[in-house]
Structures are given as structure tokens and as C-alpha cells.
TrEMBL record:
Transport among keywords: yes
InterPro entries: AAA+_ATPase (IPR003593), ABC_SmlMolc_Importer (IPR050093), ABC_transporter-like_ATP-bd (IPR003439), ABC_transporter-like_CS (IPR017871), Mo/tungstate-bd_C_term_dom (IPR008995), P-loop_NTPase (IPR027417), Transp-assoc_OB_typ2 (IPR013611)
Source organism per UniProt: Teichococcus aerophilus
Keyword tRNA processing: no
Record's keyword terms, sorted: ATP-binding, Nucleotide-binding, Transport
Protein's name in the database: ABC transporter ATP-binding protein
ABC transporter domain location: 5-236
GO molecular function annotations of the record: ATP binding
Entry-linked PROSITE patterns: ABC_TRANSPORTER_1, ABC_TRANSPORTER_2
Amino acid sequence: MQANVELINVTKRYGGGALAVDSVSLAIPSGSYCCLLGPSGCGKTSTLRMIAGHEEISEGDVLIGGRNVTGLPPVQRGTAMMFQSYALFPHLTALENVAFGLRMRGVAKAERLRQADRFLDLVQLGGMASRLPSQLSGGQQQRVALARALITHPKVLLLDEPLSALDPFLRTQMREELKRLQRELGITFVHVTHGQDEAMALSDIAVVMQGGRIAQAAPPREIFEKPATAFVARFIGGHNVLALPGGRFAVRTDRCRLLPAGQLPGLVSAIEYQGAAVRVVVAANDGQTAEALLPDAVFHAAPVEPGAAVTLGWDAADAHPLPDAA
Ligand SMILES: Nc1ncnc2c1ncn2[C@@H]1O[C@H](COP(=O)(O)OP(=O)(O)OP(=O)(O)O)[C@@H](O)[C@H]1O
């Protein structure tokens, strides 16, 4: 079972009048993976909590599967939420923690445990049913929390920074796991993250938020290729935002080269070795800063040192025009 999620002019004003979410409209297709991303305080968590029903909506409507759920309590929305802190019960085993998801729904104990066993298998923790949370690693605790959310058969799973407490290696592993589960189960995932990489890797639709509004909502490749504003280009990274003759442009750093006759002359201010690529930062003579991400072989064929006079260049077709404001 899956459902689409629709936000129509959704606004959140907290006590004191602070506007956290400002008339946001968004359509998340059924069975898709949607990431909400943006800097701290941009309104991601408030938006997620309004979809879940954990936060009252000041104005506007939330529809799930075409049904207006704006005034409904969380359990009647067909959603489940997985939190940043896994909030497992320390005195219950992994199996009992997962089964707890069904206890609130009045399912008999034997049936709860039987289903919990199946969901522990689904998150690849079959052998750890009798362990307490303190006997599990952070990544394993998180899988238990995921199974506990999924056991209620939600149509929409809401995830609030589920990977932020993990180390980089586990994060990548768990990211793959989330994507696999979402594909297998076919339900709609809405996932809040600070991480551009995470959103790129996971989303069918990525929603970049800024100051309580949506700056851009699109498949990640479209956002990377055609950032709607300078804010989006800077936030997702990998772009130079430059004032050039003809206006403001975003130019991907991996499309920039050090050329004999490029567009932006200046001095190399920093060089950073990144393994497969080398990042060369140029302080342009006109006061702007820009960088080129050069494949390591390209850099090492003609290496430069900090302080060297260079010219940064790119194909005209790689300069993506941006609106002047924002
Ligand atoms: N309970 C609250 N009362 C008052 N203001 C709040 C409350 N919760 C959030 N805010 C404010 O609303 C704005 C949006 O907060 P929100 O938590 O939705 O942002 P966020 O993008 O999820 O941030 P973060 O990434 O730091 O979690 C912020 O300015 C925040 O200070």
C-alpha cells in the first residue's frame, strides 16, 4: 500500500508569531523517495512533523492518498515516523521493541512477536532478536527503530535525520539499506536531511528549503544541472556562482579547467588533493573566488602551485544562468 502526499499552502507559525513554514505547496508522488533538505532552521522538521500530525498546521492542508488529514491525529494518517534518536525501550529486546509498534494497535501478543520476527529479518537483524538495545551497535539500533516503524504497514514513512548519528561508513551502508527497503516495499518515504550527498543518493524528488519556503523541488539531477537560484547552487555544492558579463551564472566546478585563455584570470589560492580529483581554488583578479575540480590525471599533467597565475575557463554552454535576486 502506498499513497501520495500533497501539501497545499501549508504554513506553520509557532507561539510568538515566528514563521517556520511559509505557505508551502508540494506534491510527492506515491511510492517515491522524497528528501527535504536545507540549512538549519529552514523548516524541514516542522514540515515533516505537520505531515505526521505531531505539529498543528497553522494554515493550509495536508492530503495523504487524496484524503485531507489536516485535523487527524497521527495514528489515523497511515504514516509512521522514524526519529533521529531511535528512542528504543532499553529494557525490551530487539524483538519486543519492534513488536511494540503493534501493541498500540491492539494486536495480540503472539501475533505481534510473529510479525516482529519477520520485520527483524527484513532489516537483516534476524539473529539478534533477543538482544537489548545496549547490546546493539548504533546502526543495529537504528534498524530496530526502522523495523518498529515499518511493522505498522504505513503508507508513508517519515524519517527525521535518520542517519545523522552514524559514522560515515555506517551511514553509507544504511543509506543503501533505506533505498533498498523503499524500493522493495514501494511505500512513500519522506526523509529530512542536512546532507546534500544523502539527498542526491536517495531521492526521486529533492526539496531544497530556504527560510520556510521551497527554493526548488525536482529530481536531484535536475537540481544539480539546473539550480533554480544562487542559494540552491551554493547549497548543493559543486558549483561556482559567478557574476559575469550578461548576469549571474552557476558553473559546475568539475566543468572548469585551467586554460591558457579562459574567462576568469587570477591566482591559485589553495590546492586540495582529494584522491580521484584535485580541487584548485582561484582568487580571481576581479575579487571573486572560484574553483575547479580537476581529475587527478588532468591536474598532474600540468600541476600548479599556490600563488601561480592561472586562468579559469569553461565551455559557454556550461554556464547556467541564474536569476539576479536570491
Ligand atoms: N517549538 C517551537 N517553537 C518556536 N519556534 C520553533 C519551534 N520549533 C521550531 N521553531 C523554529 O522554526 C524554524 C524552523 O525550525 P525547524 O526545526 O522546522 O527547521 P529545520 O530546517 O528542521 O532545522 P534543523 O535542521 O536545525 O533541525 C526555526 O527558526 C526554529 O527556531
